[in-house]
Design brief:
Elements (H helix, E strand, L loop, with lengths): L1 H18 L3 H10 L2 H13 L3 H25 L4 H7 L26 H25 L2 H24 L5 H18 L9 H24 L6 H9 L12 H21 L8 H20 L7 H36 L1
Helix pairs in contact: 2-7, 3-4, 3-6, 3-12, 3-13, 4-6, 4-8, 4-11, 6-7, 6-8, 7-8, 9-11, 11-13, 12-13
Length: 339
């Protein structure tokens, strides 16, 4: 792997040298590809267009990100920003590379979570859009356009991850291929109408199962926090190492979102039926609400409190999008029609 990592470093150097003027663009693309964006941006936007597609997005995002965490723990992938220093292969010729505010993620590097979750989630979106366009126009060319945009997005997210030194090229490719496969498989098994017990059992099962796996590997002498130590050691600025990028943050986000999805379908089976104008209003209000929910500051000490609150935060996401906001909009618009 040493040769693969070395070539990845030189590729990242060339990419930075040639496209440094587009730094803000790559930072924006990497934020769009963040798994968090699937929950806070893609899910509400998709849900108010198609309820089934929205539920599928949330389902695929949670399961694919959880699987990405397990794969990372199994594969022990390095990240460029720490490997270039830890390897000590560049003492004679140091690569001219730079870190950025979104570089210093703390989990292992393989496969890329951004690439994997983006590929899985956006497959749900583009396949639904492609099918819709073909059913309305019967044009193969027009219905193929979303799939072309899908490929462009995956390439852009992959380049952004290499540019900011978060991943090596092979990790991005592995994440994209795995996510594509998961998108196809999981989108066929959307848990619409499943009982609350299913989601509760799944959420608790994933949480306890993953925690048990972590504890078991530690008992075997495998330290899964090795990547956190390297992130803190080699990140250019301490404030760039954030707890919300840690592996257990991904776990609590996924388990919280799954439980929240079950609760939302339990409170309002089938969701609220709204015309297009109230749907657009619901989308706008939900987006603002999720923006402020996401910006709520959480105490980082003790870490157990942080993860507990992080879990609750993502339990609330489906409640806001599927129950609270559309319910209030329905109540308000229904009253106005009566008046």
């Amino acid at each position: 792997m040493e040769a693969v990592y070395t070539q990845g470093i030189w590729m990242a150097e060339r990419l930075q040298q040639r496209t440094m003027s587009q730094e803000k663009l790559w930072q924006f693309v990497t934020h769009i590809g963040d798994p968090k964006a699937a929950f806070l941006l893609v899910f509400p936007f998709t849900y108010f267009i198609s309820k089934r597609a929205g539920v599928a997005v949330l389902w695929v995002a949670a399961i694919s990100e959880w699987l990405n965490l397990v794969f990372k723990w199994m594969l022990f992938g390095e990240r460029p920003y720490w490997w270039v220093a830890e390897s000590r292969l560049f003492t004679n010729k140091q690569p001219n590379i730079h870190q950025f505010s979104s570089t210093c993620e703390t989990g292992p590097g393989s496969p890329s979570g951004h690439a994997m979750v983006t590929a899985a989630v956006w497959w749900v979106v583009v396949s639904s859009l492609g099918s819709f366009l073909y059913s309305r126009t019967h044009s193969v060319m027009l219905s193929a356009a979303p799939y072309l945009l899908y490929v462009v997005m995956l390439v852009a997210v992959g380049i952004s991850r290499i540019f900011i030194l978060a991943h090596f090229p092979h990790q991005v490719i592995a994440g994209s291929i795995t996510g594509f496969i998961l998108g196809i498989v999981l989108s066929r098994r959307v848990p619409e109408g499943r009982p609350l017990l299913f989601f509760f059992s799944l959420s608790v099962g994933l949480l306890l199962g993953t925690a048990s796996l972590h504890a078991g590997l530690r008992q075997l002498g495998i330290d899964l926090s090795w990547s956190v130590a390297l992130a803190k050691k080699w990140c250019s600025r301490a404030e760039w190492v954030r707890l919300d990028s840690a592996p257990f943050s991904s776990l609590t986000r996924d388990c919280g979102a799954l439980l929240g999805l079950g609760l939302a379908q339990y409170w309002k089976p089938g969701g609220w039926s709204l015309p297009w104008a109230p749907r657009a209003l619901s989308l706008a209000i939900s987006s603002m609400g999720l923006y402020h929910v996401n910006r709520l500051p959480l105490p980082v000490r003790p870490q157990g409190l942080f993860y507990g609150l992080f879990f609750i935060k993502f339990v609330m996401v489906p409640q806001v999008v599927m129950v609270l906001v559309p319910g209030l909009v329905h109540l308000f618009t229904h009253k106005r029609r009566k008046d």
